[in-house]
Design a protein that fits this description.
Elements lengths: L2 H23 L4 H22 L1 H10 L7 H7 L2 E2 L8 H5 L3 H9 L16 H10 L3 E6 L5 E6 L1 H21 L5 H27 L3 E10 L3 H10 L4 E9 L2 H9 L4 H16 L1 H17 L3 E6 L1 H14 L10 E5 L12 H12 L6 E5 L8 E2 L6 E3 L4 E5 L5 E2 L3 E9 L9 E11 L10 E8 L7 H9 L2
């Protein structure tokens, strides 16, 4: 293990312990939290400066030294998510995955030696990377220009495991659990620490639930990864789309098929998803009925527009169902390209309760993005809470940082857990950021009023599903 990895893992453990305490008590020592965050950010900067070519070039251009302080890093070294799609499109057009390996090395902290001989598609390439322990999450916007964010085994384990250490505790504090479950989880967290509690919750926290995932059973797009991670925790999992979300097909749907093979793949994909949507809904309904009949609680997960569509279908078909008390619904990804379908929060919660019998206090939401490791959970007051383990920056239209306790602008973050790729990102979202605590009782920073910045394409699940639906 390198000196950087030993140092950053030590800080990560301290930060994750802090996140657990914050989620349970509602507050932390802000000065101590800032000290830990800044130490991780500086350590990552030094590592990026030494090992990530694109970051070093940006540092040289901005004349930022290896030993920069956090203020200078935030002012000079944050970049947009475009660095993760900075490859020439002809690499993918020509199936030149050797060139894609060389490009990926520019945003990754070590050589990319995956064997790509004979790789015939983006999915083949991603599979070869995964076999070489380079776990690459993709996100496609409405342009079809795919972002690729590579993670090593450790950073992948943080992506899929970090949230387990604090999000369940946060949600329980907001009322999304029975009293004895809250007490047992808090006791386990205090006794076991981050790693032990994470393992405890993965093994036991959701085992009494059946899972209904209004998403894809495979593929490495961000929202799908969340669903697949949760699916491994529940007693039984049913997916709306029992197939991989194919990066090859997503690109072909947006940009048009490049050849007959892509045309066949796209047509088969649309047949299984869009054209057979009602069949898939009926299969999910059968699983919901089976769960209710067995008196098992159910966890429903998906993007809000898909949840809305499914719930409206249940109402239209007269198939509303009363899931067992204690069932939950969790959603993420926002409305994005489905703004025309958006309904306000009270109407959304009323629809969920009418069609599934899930009460509003059992509905949870998280906010994150492909390039981030940390998820911001939503409280009962409708705000997303920034855990004290990551740093946010708000920018004006000229990309100058703003200060203040209640400000609106472009969201940026410096993610201490992005250990192997540049994690200092200016997103395409405008948000309202408030400091000083929340009416829900939690301290710290919150964001709300999230919208896509003018001129920035819709990314992630929203862009992909928009492409699927034409």
């Amino acid at each position: 293990m390198s000196d950087h990895h030993a140092e950053i893992r030590t800080i990560h453990l301290q930060l994750t312990t802090l996140a657990m305490r914050w989620a349970m008590s509602g507050s932390v020592n802000e000065d101590y939290a800032r000290e830990l965050r800044f130490a991780a950010i500086r350590a990552n900067h030094r590592h990026y400066w030494d090992n990530i070519p694109i970051y070093r070039r940006l540092a040289d251009q901005a004349e930022v030294p290896r030993e920069a302080d956090t203020a200078q890093i935030a002012a000079e070294m944050m970049s947009t998510d475009h660095i993760f799609k900075s490859y020439p499109q002809e690499y993918l057009d020509n199936h030149d995955y050797g060139a894609m390996n060389r490009w990926l090395r520019q945003v990754y902290d070590r050589p990319v030696n995956a064997d790509v001989a004979g790789a015939a598609s983006i999915d083949d390439w991603l599979g070869r990377l995964n076999a070489a322990a380079i776990h690459t999450v993709f996100s496609s916007g409405t342009s079809g220009h795919i972002s690729f964010v590579p993670r090593d085994a450790y950073t992948w384990s943080q992506l899929t495991g970090l949230g387990v250490s604090y999000i369940p505790l946060f949600q329980m504090r907001q009322g999304a659990a029975r009293s004895w479950e809250r007490a047992a989880s808090r006791a386990a967290a205090r006794m076991l620490g981050p790693d032990g509690f994470g393992e405890f919750f993965r093994r036991r926290g959701l085992r009494g639930f059946d899972g209904i995932f209004l998403s894809f059973s495979g593929g490495t797009q961000g929202t799908q990864v969340v669903g697949q991670t949760l699916a491994r925790m529940v007693g039984r999992a049913t997916f709306l789309f029992d197939l991989d979300l194919s990066a090859t097909v997503v690109r072909a749907l947006v940009r048009g098929p490049a050849d007959e093979r892509e045309r066949r793949l796209s047509d088969a994909f649309l047949e299984a998803t869009v054209r057979r949507r009602a069949d898939n809904f009926r299969r999910v309904l059968a699983a919901l009925r089976e769960s209710a009949a067995a008196r098992r609680r159910t966890l429903v997960f998906g993007a809000p527009f898909m949840i809305k569509e499914f719930c409206e279908w249940l109402v239209a078909e007269g198939d509303e169902i009363a899931l067992r008390p204690g069932s939950m619904l969790s959603h993420g990804g926002g409305w994005k390209s489905f703004e025309g379908d958006r309904i306000d929060e009270p109407a959304f919660l009323a629809l969920v309760e009418q069609s599934l019998g899930i009460r509003p206090e059992r509905v949870t939401e998280g906010y994150s993005m492909t390039e981030a490791q940390v998820v911001f959970p939503r409280c009962r007051e409708g705000r997303f809470h920034v855990p004290p383990i990551t740093e946010t920056v708000i920018f004006d239209e000229a990309l100058e940082p703003l200060t203040g306790d209640d400000i609106y602008g472009g969201l940026g973050f410096l993610d201490p857990y992005a250990a192997c790729y540049p994690g200092f990102i200016i997103t395409g979202d405008n948000v309202r950021r408030r400091s000083g605590g929340c009416p829900c009782g939690m301290s710290g920073v919150t964001i709300s009023d999230i919208g896509r910045a003018t001129g920035r394409e819709v990314k992630g699940c929203g862009g992909i599903m928009a492409a699927m639906q034409g």
